[in-house]
Amino acid sequence: MRESGDAVRLSFNELKDLLRRVFIKVSVNQETAELLADNCAMVERDGPESHGVFRIEGYLNTLKSGWVNGCADPRIEDCGESFIRVDADNGFAQLCLARARPLLLEKVRRSGCAVLMVRGSHHFSALWPDIEPFAQQGLLALTFVAGLSVVAVSGGKTPVFGTNPLAFACPVAGSSPLVFDFATSALSNGDTRIAARAGHLLPDGCGIDKSGQPTNNPEQILNGGALLPFGGHKGAAIILMVEILAAALTGGAFSYQVDFKNHPGAETPKTGQLLIVIDPARGGNHDFAARVAALLNLIRASGENIRIAGDKRLQNRARAEQQGIVITRAVLAQLNGFL
Amino acid sequence: MRESGDAVRLSFNELKDLLRRVFIKVSVNQETAELLADNCAMVERDGPESHGVFRIEGYLNTLKSGWVNGCADPRIEDCGESFIRVDADNGFAQLCLARARPLLLEKVRRSGCAVLMVRGSHHFSALWPDIEPFAQQGLLALTFVAGLSVVAVSGGKTPVFGTNPLAFACPVAGSSPLVFDFATSALSNGDTRIAARAGHLLPDGCGIDKSGQPTNNPEQILNGGALLPFGGHKGAAIILMVEILAAALTGGAFSYQVDFKNHPGAETPKTGQLLIVIDPARGGNHDFAARVAALLNLIRASGENIRIAGDKRLQNRARAEQQGIVITRAVLAQLNGFL
């Protein structure tokens, strides 16, 4: 750990170890604490600000409320050559994925594609760490998660969807995989809360107030209003699709069915998560990763300062690997205070 | 056929039979002519205006140019328990799907999910007819197609993507399936051409002119400019994903690789198409369709006059089934002129 002014720089392992001890302090078992700490440290390393360590207080409050099971024992159901269901035992999705990954990989390698359907799971992090490992092994992966009911449709007065993130990952010859991950609402919950905390106004089209009228004020969105889907009526179709894939298809709760009012302090959605994993090389398509690399090069050459989804994250990662993960003294003190 | 003023009303079968004869007239074989006529009549019946009969002249010019094979004999490659590849033999995607559908259904029923990768195929229609039949059989389906290079990224000066449509379909208990289908560009090619023909200006963010500057003029987009992705940077990630799924993953050409300059009159993209089909009931999830119905009811009840993706198409279909498919005398004369 290196100190510089108001900030400290931690190595990945220092941050992960600290977070692991924080989770164990609230009675999360070793297996889950290890996974959540690894996940949270990765997200803090790569940004953005709205996930990572920013979420630790929410994790802890949720665990203390009894809403989520920090010692869950998910049950893997092998439902066919290319189909796995998982009952999360009210635990975190990351544990389900870690437990199911060997069988999922076996199925993809054997049959060419496979799906993993997780239900009754809590997801409180970015999605990219769930699928980047598949791309690092040459596979293409998609994932979808339902959330807390905070997004209304155009003309709607009450929220019906979660922020419903989706993520995509695939290998790129000669470089890091292409991985992107975003909320299918106009804004994520985290970014809405950050804007509210900073007193910033939002662009048009992000949300409505409690009477259903458009608003640019994040406070009004958070206090009885709702976010809107990204991208107009096409984005509205995408967010509906994510809700169906992540909840109805997995057997998990819809975003609107999440009800933690008997667990004061709880913040995590207990819904479901779908993964679709495909082997791009199956059937002799061996130049997949090289062709994706050529496409990305073409896109970068089509103008100046072109940004491709995931670029910022890889820049953050490279900087953190060189200089360490920067957090403020205040945040470090808060984390140590949890021990 | 009933006449009323400037318009005529045809039954579905009357329109389909006329279109079939038009395709056969330009030496398309019976199998493909039947499929294209059925597809085109369905799209005309359900709308929107930018597909359907509006496309017939483009089909015919493309066939006459020798760019597409109207008598193709696609080769189905069984690449694994859940994986099919198809070499389209330079024919239409609809033929590949029709030929591969029995094997695809067999694989989905057996293993729980399957993917179909078509390459070297031409797609010049809406996507929903490709997947609605799966939803009618209780399955969930997704499809993705790459197109002609007409879409630039933000900050780009030259087009790199097709309009890259995606479509989703799933069963809904007690009603027609939920099916939607849209270009992942801000506007489809067809709608851009219709706006240009009508002299309409477009909303902000739809496209750029030939110097890379934003424009609202569809003529400038069509004449050396480019469309933009829908939905800002999130839509840009989606359109990139569709390009990768429909071209790199299938082994088909990227949109930017389509080159028909030696075939004057050609209009169809020769790229690739991906289908992902999943059995929602696999593993005991038998209330999938009922839960989707409940979700759609909740969305409709969340405000007044809420529109859900696909609503308009089903309204058009219901009206056409009652009153016939309305086309103008001029269009009917044009179709008859092709015979």
TrEMBL record, chains A, B:
One of its GO terms (molecular function) is oxidoreductase activity. Coiled coil: none annotated. Keywords: Oxidoreductase. Signal peptide: none annotated. The keyword Metal-binding does not apply. Gene3D superfamilies: 1.10.1530.10, Hypothetical oxidoreductase yiak, domain 2 (3.30.1370.60). Belongs to the LDH2/MDH2 oxidoreductase family. This is Lactate dehydrogenase. It comes from Ventosimonas gracilis.
